[in-house]
Automatic annotation (TrEMBL):
Name this protein carries in UniProt: GrpE protein homolog
Disordered: region residues: 20-53
Function: Essential component of the PAM complex, a complex required for the translocation of transit peptide-containing proteins from the inner membrane into the mitochondrial matrix in an ATP-dependent manner.
Lineage, highest ranks first: Eukaryota, Metazoa, Chordata, Craniata, Vertebrata
SUPFAM superfamilies for the chain: Coiled-coil domain of nucleotide exchange factor GrpE (SSF58014), Head domain of nucleotide exchange factor GrpE (SSF51064)
Subcellular location per the Swiss-Prot or TrEMBL entry: Mitochondrion matrix
Keywords: Chaperone, Coiled coil, Mitochondrion
Similarity section: Belongs to the GrpE family.
PANTHER family the record matches: GRPE PROTEIN, GRPE PROTEIN HOMOLOG 2, MITOCHONDRIAL
Xref: HAMAP family: GrpE
Top-rank taxon, per record: Eukaryota
Coiled-coil residue windows: 59-86
Main subcellular location of this protein, as a coarse class: mitochondrion
Length: 225
């Protein structure tokens, strides 16, 4: 009996020591584990920011960029509308100027022609009022003076406005300037293929032919048409 009691006592002491050691081990490990978890959490928080900050900053940047682009679009739209309006105004003014040029482009020429008409009218009145019925010589002299003055004035008006009468006699036939009426035998000193006679004068305006000269062209006798 005494031996059994002693063995039981030993077992109880061993259990008590084991329980005490296990309790102390848990107390030593628990602070270390908590500190380790806290340190790991702090490291994570210091290295990686929360996921909520990233999208918020990106959205804010996108909104600012969208506002800026919208403002630029509005400015460009206003500029485009102004440019279209200015272009339309320029087109209308240009069209009006072209129409005015068509209507009043010969205003200066007409003004000079009026002076020619005045000379012709005065010459006619002078002949009809001052000439005696039987004095034909005086009448012809006045007509000649009036016509000479009229021709001089017309030449002056034509020269002023760049209107030039062509003198193609002796020139080589040119279909761009001459209208062929007929062929005539080449006379002495006349080269075949050249203008021998002018039926109606041609005119150029600032170097451009506005009326062809009606001409007769010299050819060799056997080629006469």
């Amino acid at each position: 009996m005494a031996a059994r009691a002693l063995w039981a006592g030993r077992r109880g002491v061993q259990r008590l020591l084991a329980s005490s050691a296990a309790s102390e081990g848990r107390e030593w490990l628990h602070p270390f584990s908590t500190a380790t978890q806290r340190t790991a959490g702090e490291d994570c928080s210091s290295e990686d920011p929360p996921d909520e900050l990233g999208p918020s900053l990106a959205e804010r940047a996108l909104r600012l960029k969208a506002v800026k682009l919208e403002k630029e679009v509005q400015d460009l739209t206003v500029r485009y509308q102004r440019a279209v309006a200015d272009g339309e105004n320029i087109r209308r003014r240009t069209q009006r100027c072209v129409e005015d040029a068509k209507i009043f482009g010969i205003q200066s020429f007409c003004k000079d022609l009026v002076e020619v008409a005045d000379i012709l009218e005065k010459t006619t009145e002078c002949i009809s009022e001052e000439t005696e019925p039987g004095d034909q010589k005086l009448t012809l002299e006045k007509i000649f003076r009036g016509l000479s003055l009229l021709e001089a004035k017309l030449k002056s008006v034509f020269a002023k406005h760049g209107l030039e009468k062509m003198t193609p006699i002796g020139d080589k036939y040119d279909p761009h300037e001459h209208e062929l009426i007929c062929h005539v035998p080449a006379g002495v000193g006349v080269q075949p293929g050249t203008v021998a006679l002018v039926r109606q004068d041609g005119y150029k305006l600032h170097g451009r032919t506005i009326r062809l000269a009606q001409v007769e062209v010299a050819v060799e006798s056997q080629r006469r048409l």
